[in-house]
């Protein structure tokens, strides 16, 4: 009996060919362990009116004013805004076939990306009149300036460093999540104290990050993830109106160390202070 049982087991093992995991899910014991990065929280220092019709794609501070790039076809603009009142001081309308995206200020010029049109516009800061165009490959999402190069996101985990004189890519970095997977949907950017701060579009989705309203802090030299800023709960009424009203605007004033944030079609602009999460 024992001999027959052992023979049956042997035949069963021999006839069971290799199994295929159709979902390509690695066994738990072989998964790459997730590293931990610090998460910061915030406090609101003040709030100001923001144009609910502004589909915010880029935000920057300069000489007491905010400069804002807004999106949507037939509605995209570049504008200069009074912080206290939210009123538009100057505005340039893009052509109906252009979808405005990230923007950055260099000296007396403003650079603005477009989404799928592969065109970057350059404007005079003084009157927001266009003076030059550049062409680039891929999509345009976020844009900021580190004092030497423009820094550009395109919706992937790759960030490009761009020569502002030629709009040619100088170098790139790749940004990964704690578990080693690419951190996708990197959106609007701001350069803050030697770091890249990046909005993550729909960071609430499990496929992206699974955490709402998170800003990633990134090492510009290596792409290493330095931490997150958790802004969940900052503007619930705006986001309840439409799921596309996502956090998407960071502006920093190095002279006063002030930070402002807003989102797409939000009714408020918030000055915040970032602090450790307890």
How would you characterize this protein structure?
With 278 residues, the chain is mainly β. The chain has a single domain, classed as Neuraminidase. It is 7% helix and 45% strand. The chain has helices spanning 2-15, 236-241, and strands spanning 39-49, 56-62, 65-70, 77-82, 88-93, 100-106, 109-114, 119-124, 130-135, 143-145, 150-153, 158-162, 169-174, 186-192, 195-200, 214-218, 225-230, 247-253, 258-263, 268-276. It has an eight-stranded mixed β-sheet with strand order 14-15-16-17-1-20-19-18, with no helix packed on it. Strand 19 and strand 20 (268-276) form a beta hairpin. The radius of gyration is 23 Å and the shape is globular.
What sort of overall outline do the alpha carbons produce when their principal axes are compared?
globular
Q: Which range does the strand content fall in?
A: 35-45%
- Radius of gyration (Å): 23 Å
- Which class best fits the helix and strand makeup? mainly beta
Compressed to H and E, one letter per element, the order equals HEEEEEEEEEEEEEEEEEHEEE
CATH topology: Neuraminidase
CATH homology-level superfamily:
TolB, C-terminal domain
SS element count, helices: 2
Distance separating the two termini? 65 Å
- Helix content range of the residues, please? under 10%
CATH secondary-structure class? Mainly Beta
């Amino acid at each position: 009996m024992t001999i027959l049982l052992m023979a049956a087991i042997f035949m069963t093992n021999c006839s069971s060919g290799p199994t295929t995991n159709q979902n390509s899910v690695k066994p738990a014991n072989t998964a790459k362990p997730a590293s931990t990065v610090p998460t910061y929280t915030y406090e609101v220092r003040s709030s100001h009116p923001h144009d609910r019709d502004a589909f915010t794609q880029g935000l920057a501070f300069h000489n007491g004013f905010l400069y804002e790039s807004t999106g949507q076809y037939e509605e995209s603009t570049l504008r200069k805004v009074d912080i206290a009142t939210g009123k538009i001081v100057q505005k340039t309308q893009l052509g109906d076939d252009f979808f405005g995206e990230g923007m950055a200020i260099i000296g007396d010029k403003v650079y603005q990306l477009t989404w799928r049109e592969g065109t970057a516009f350059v404007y005079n800061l003084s009157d927001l009149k266009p003076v030059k165009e550049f062409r680039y490959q891929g999509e345009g999402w976020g844009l900021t300036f580190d004092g030497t190069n423009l820094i550009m996101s395109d919706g992937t985990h790759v960030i490009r460093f761009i020569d502002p004189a030629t709009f040619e890519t100088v170098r790139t970095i790749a940004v990964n999540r704690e578990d080693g997977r690419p951190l996708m949907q990197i959106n609007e950017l701001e350069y803050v104290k030697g770091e890249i701060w990046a909005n993550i579009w729909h960071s609430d989705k499990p496929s992206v990050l699974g955490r709402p309203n998170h800003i990633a802090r990134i090492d510009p030299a290596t792409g290493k993830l330095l931490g997150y800023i958790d802004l969940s709960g900052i503007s619930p009424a705006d986001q309840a109106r439409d799921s596309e009203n996502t956090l998407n605007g960071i502006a920093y004033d190095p002279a006063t160390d002030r930070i402002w944030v807003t989102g797409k079609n939000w009714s408020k602009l918030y000055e915040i202070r970032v602090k450790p999460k307890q």
